[in-house]
Specification:
Structural class: alpha+beta
Strand content: 25-35%
Radius of gyration: 29 Å
Order of helices and strands: HHEEEHEEEEEHHHEEEHHEEEHH
Number of domains: 2
Number of strands: 14
Number of helices: 10
Strand order of the largest sheet: 8-14-13-12-9-10-11
Shape: elongated
């Protein structure tokens, strides 16, 4: 996981831990005074749900992590959970190791198969002897939406593809596709669509002679065009004229250079060649997938700085 994504996740976890830690500590103190009366403990857990509006289940475990109450829910008690041994569950690891409060990593729940979190508070008597644990389960989709949208960092990212394709790389060679035969016309047309007709993301599949386009007027649906469409300038008539976006990361006059870079990589070698290339005007990222099935994602200006010798491995 990249550092920026990890930071975004940890920020949200910190917010949740701050909220849950206080609420669970208060409820754990109430439960301690009723220990180990099951009926009284379940009654207090029912009241505890009022202080934890997004909680799915509350339950109590003894000092061996065996459940001594039912699962308490807003719909009632799940009595079949009484006596369950939770000692091997990953979300209890920190609590069993002595942490007074812990918030688990997200996991897929056993029953609902949905992303979930569990918060655990240790419960001790006045002498510090461990009585047990208070557990609270949360469905991620029901938690308050405090997190900001994750922003993908604009930096080079390389991903390896299918090992079987890489192993057979030197037993294949590029086959001239229908799109290859009309490369200059197709790239000129895509440049026009991106700079004048509102296309903000284009992916050119050179080997399979097609393109997928996303437009600002309808960003949730892509348009698919084959080689014949991409060789016909009339295609522009199907896309209304739009001003080039002021907040685009890629200058309009540099789009053509990026597309020309795709052409150079497509024909650079008969064994190692570009299978598909994409450009997004807003995040400024170029995506490349090669015949070895390896993929690269990099900022457009960094892409333009690379020579063919860099991609073929012959740079000095």
């Amino acid at each position: 996981m990249n550092p920026t994504l990890q930071t975004a996740i940890q920020r949200q976890r910190k917010i949740l831990a701050g909220w849950l830690g206080t609420a669970l500590a208060s409820l754990a103190a109430e439960c301690r005074t009723a220990w180990p009366d099951r009926n009284e403990l379940e009654s207090r857990l029912r009241h505890g749900l009022d202080e934890l509006p997004y909680c799915k289940y509350l339950y109590l475990l003894d000092n061996r992590a065996r459940q001594i109450t039912a699962n308490v829910t807003r719909a009632g008690l799940l009595a079949d959970q009484h006596g369950r041994d939770r000692s091997d569950r990953p979300y209890l690891a920190e609590a069993l190791a002595g942490a007074p409060f812990s918030l688990s990593e997200a996991y897929i729940s056993r029953n609902a198969k949905r992303p979930s979190l569990t918060a655990v508070a240790r419960i001790s008597d006045d002498q510090g002897t461990l009585l047990g644990y208070l557990g609270a389960d949360f469905d991620l989709r029901e938690l308050p939406a405090t997190q900001a949208l994750y922003q993908q960092p604009e930096q080079w990212l390389q991903m390896k593809g299918d090992p079987a394709i890489r192993a057979g790389l030197f037993h294949q060679e590029r086959v001239n596709s229908a799109l290859d035969q009309h490369m200059d016309e197709a790239l000129a047309l895509v440049n026009e669509l991106m700079t004048v007709h509102g296309v903000f993301h284009a992916k050119l599949h050179f080997s399979s002679s097609r393109a997928t386009l996303w437009v600002m007027d309808d960003p949730y649906r892509y348009r698919l065009h084959g080689a014949a469409d991409l060789a016909d300038p009339n295609l522009c008539l199907a896309y209304p004229r739009r001003a080039y976006p002021a907040d685009a990361s890629v200058p309009a006059e540099r789009v053509r250079e990026v597309l020309a870079g795709f052409k150079a990589l497509r024909f650079m070698d008969e064994t190692l060649y570009l299978r598909s290339g994409s450009l997004n005007l807003f995040n400024g990222m170029v995506g490349l997938t090669f015949s070895c099935d390896g993929s690269h994602y990099m900022p457009w200006d960094e892409f333009l700085e690379k020579s063919l010798s860099f991609w073929t491995g012959t740079a000095g």
